[in-house]
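Dissemination and training. As part of the outreach component of the grant, students in the summer workshop were shown how a complex can be specified as a set of sequence lines and then modelled as a single object. The example used during the hands-on session is reproduced here so that future cohorts can follow it. Participants entered these lines:
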Amino acid sequence: MEKLSGLEKLAGSREAPKNGGWTKRNKTGFMYVCIWIAGFAIFQLYPFISSLIYSFTDYNIFDAPKFVGFSNYVKLFTKDREFWNSMRVTLQYTFITVPGKVILALIVAMILNRQLKGINFIRTVYYIPSLLSGSVAVSILWKVLFMNDGFINSLLGAVHLPAVKWLGDPGTAVVTICLLEIWQFGSSMVLFLSALKQVPKDLYEAARIDGASKPRIFFKITLPMISSIAFFNIIMQLITALQNFTSAFVVTNGGPNKATYVLGMKLYMDAFKYFKMGYACATSWIMFVVILILTLILFMTSKYWVYYYDE
Amino acid sequence: MRNLKKTAAVLLVAAMAAGMVTGCSTTNEPTGAATTKAAAAATTKAAAGAATTAAGAKTTAAGAATTAAKADAGKSVTLRFMWWGGDARNQATQKVIEQYQAKNPNVKIEAEMNSDQGYIDKVSTMLANGTAPDIIQQNVDSLPDFVSRGDFFVNFYDYKDIFDTTGFEKSFIDQFGTFNGKLLALPTGMSCLATVANKKAAETCGVDLTKQITWKSMLEDGAKLHKAHPDYYYMNVDTKILCEYVLRPYLRQKTGKPFIVDSEKKMSFTKDQLVEALKYIKDCYDQGVFEPASDTATFKGQIHTNPKWISGNYVFAYGPSSSIKLLIDAAPDKNCDVVQMALAEDRVNDGFFADTPQYMTVNKNSKNAKEAVKFLNYFYNDTEAQKILKDVRSVPPTTTARKVCSDAGLLDKTVVKAVDLASKLNGKSDKGYTTSSEVYAIQEDMIESVAYGQATPEAAADNAISMITDYLSRAK
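and obtained this result:
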């Protein structure tokens, strides 16, 4: 066989692939990936499928599961008052946390988007809380801070504002755990920072020359250019917020009077305290469908406001 | 440069691999080492071991124990013992374990100390997948639920030659630990629900501690007290305590029956009675007998940390006899007493009763069930062990232990007074369906919805009754 010329090598071999495409490169690539695939199959795919199967059974971990069809789902929607309360609480939590977090991240990113001495240090400081997401220790700390005679109320007292019963009042308890999540806006902020840096400077120059006002520049240039990253942030925060468990469990334990009893908590209690595994699996699948629907809605509406500058 | 990068990469991989391995539990290693050591020592110490075991087991079964010990003195055994508790209890239990291991060198006991948070969840998961330890301390409320779900525990009556039950009062172990004639759990002490009184606060507010409290008097006196002294409150509670200390006893004193009658799978009260009980609790909150629920929410489960109790602004507090010390230590000047629980004047039954704080059980699937039972015999019946354990699990459950401890002055007199007050009452225990996690949560929910003013007593009662009915239709 004659040696392929350099150009022909570049263009790729003209012969049909041997082994049905299973070249050495493909094999090596697959070997690198197969470890991840094994982990995914064991720790994510298998529980995913088995939880769907369990959701159609009555399973109390001591006995074998009993097939009951859709009765778990029917019960959740028609007989379980706690389910609707948890759904309401979860949606309330999500629709306070996600806009709060994303907007705050954007504002802080814009403030920190400048060249100053020590700006990297400041950005790091704002980023650190998001490293602690899901941390039980931080949730305990939060609980102590927001107690009736805790640090936050002392601060309010110092500026002559009345103390608030953060954790005791059913109305404000949700706000307290939302604040914990909003405080961890650092990761979104970092993404926004990089997006802001990628907005072409000549757009701003052109706008300045044309005499556009600052708000106009923000809404007509900055926002559209970073909309793809904003879209990513919103979707990721939405998915995380809907599945929240740790902060509700540790800070308020679902109370007071089930005001912070998010769906994640209801799932935990049903599964591990009341031994209703099948029922809990049904709850988790309903949560999955809700997340799916909200994400799809966001995707469908994205073509109206998200701008990808390479299309 | 390339070699440097390669070495760095290899080192990092090694560090990651080491990190993964350290995550694995190392409890197997010491067991392995201990068993090989014990096996080597056991053969030489066989005769000596048998002698000391015979001396240590001061029970009527001593003769049988010696022959049993001689027979398997050569076999080394590891037992896992799981319990929850505070420092005092952990230290005392550890000491007893060490003493037993010294007397029985072929036995090694691994202590698994836990916090009480999440303990039941841990035990239930372990029982379900067969990884439960050999000896398990159990919560009194949740044990009946476990017993109904499977055959997990050893019947101590099957081991009459190893375990001596004569130290216990028969009526006591019949009520606590016996299920369908089988002694599946051993009560660890005698305890009760107690009303702790802060003497100084009582004096300031003019509360007469010698007067018997009734539900009516609690509401009247408490309301008057709070009106006259707005910083003071009558009773330190949280919404969970109210289930066990007010809601259920109120109903038990009215009906003479437990909240749910397990044998009939029915509630023993009418809707009107439940509404009356909830209205009572609501009135107590509204009229200042209890501190507002939103203020006490953060101290749920730890009312001794409530700053108002610490500053002495409460006259009374509710707590189990095993936590009396916690309440007293937190009160100013530790100047406290216990008084009798609230008794309705027109009651058909006292409602309250002498109880046990925890149980000890042995896992039926344990490979060393016999050794585990032997250890528990030492734990309960050996004089030295009784002296060390004294009252870390409330007043000791056996007559021998109580005599030994009171002779040596080891029991706290307030705890003894509380248990004495309770032992005079004729109430019956209501553990069972009533105290399963789901029903307990329903009780708490209805109290909370009334306490926070988010539901009327009628609506809360309706909701609770329908949820309990649904639970009972599913219960085994």
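The mean pLDDT of chain A is 89. Students were then asked to discuss how this feature might be tested experimentally.
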